[in-house]
Write a structure and sequence with these properties.
- It is a single chain.
- This protein is mainly α and about 170 residues long.
- It has 2 domains: about 1-70; about 95-165.
- About 75% of the residues lie in helices and about 0% in strands.
- It has 10 helices and no strands.
- The chain has helices at about 1-20, 25-40, 45-55, 60-70, 75-85, 90-100, 105-120, 120-135, 140-155, 160-165.
- Helix 8 packs antiparallel against helix 9 (about 140-155).
- The protein starts with a helix and ends with a helix.
- The mean pLDDT is about 90.
- It comes from Lactuca saligna.
- One of its GO terms (molecular function) is RNA binding.
- Pfam families: PPR, PPR_2.
- Keywords: Repeat.
Length: about 170
C-alpha cells in the first residue's frame, strides 16, 4: 500500500509540474482539489510542489497557507516560500522567514540577495554575502553573479575585501 501511495504522490507531483510548464494555475488548483478528495497522504515532497505551483502562479497566500500548515518542513519548503516573497518584492516577509529558518543554505541566502537587488537595496545584498561567508555557507557562482550585479548597480570599484578574499 505504501508503494502505491508513493506512486500516486509522484503522479500528482508530475501533474503539478506540467501545470507550471503550461502556466495553468486553474488546472493546478483542480489537481490540488483532487489530491484532497482522493485522501492521498500529502507529504513534504507533494506539499513543496503545491507551494511552488502557487508561488510561481501568483497565489502567494495559498503557498503561505500550505507552508504554515506543514507539520514537517525541509530546506526546499523554506526556500520556496522565502524565494516567492523575495521575488514578489515582499522582502520584509522573506527576511522574517529567513531569520526563522533553522539553517539557511546557499539557495536561501541567494534568494534574499536577489530580493534585495530587485528592491534596489544593493548594499544590503552585498552585506548578505559577507554574512553568508561569516556563517560558513558556501556561495555559488549564481550568488557571486548577484553580488556583482549589486556592485555594478552601486557603481563601486571598492567592495568589501572579505568577498574576494573568500
Amino acid at each position: 500500500m505504501g508503494t502505491f501511495r508513493h506512486q500516486l504522490s509522484d503522479h500528482y507531483a508530475s501533474l503539478i509540474q506540467r501545470t507550471l510548464v503550461n502556466k495553468d494555475p486553474c488546472a493546478g488548483k483542480a489537481i490540488h482539489a483532487r489530491i484532497i478528495k482522493s485522501g492521498v497522504h500529502v507529504g513534504v515532497f507533494l506539499t513543496n510542489n503545491l507551494m511552488n505551483l502557487y508561488a510561481k502562479t501568483g497565489f502567494l497566500v495559498d503557498a503561505r497557507r500550505l507552508f504554515d500548515e506543514m507539520p514537517v518542513r525541509n530546506a526546499s519548503s523554506w526556500n520556496t516560500i522565502i524565494s516567492a516573497y523575495a521575488k514578489q518584492g515582499r522582502i520584509e516577509y522573506a527576511r522574517h522567514l529567513f531569520d526563522e529558518m533553522p539553517e539557511p543554505d546557499s539557495v536561501t541566502w541567494t534568494a534574499m540577495m536577489v530580493g534585495y537587488n530587485q528592491m534596489g537595496r544593493f548594499e544590503t545584498a552585498v552585506r548578505m554575502l559577507v554574512d553568508m561567508i561569516s556563517s560558513k555557507v558556501m556561495p555559488t557562482q549564481y550568488t557571486f553573479t548577484i553580488v556583482l550585479a549589486s556592485c555594478a548597480a552601486m557603481n563601486r570599484r571598492s567592495v568589501d575585501s572579505r568577498i574576494f578574499v573568500w
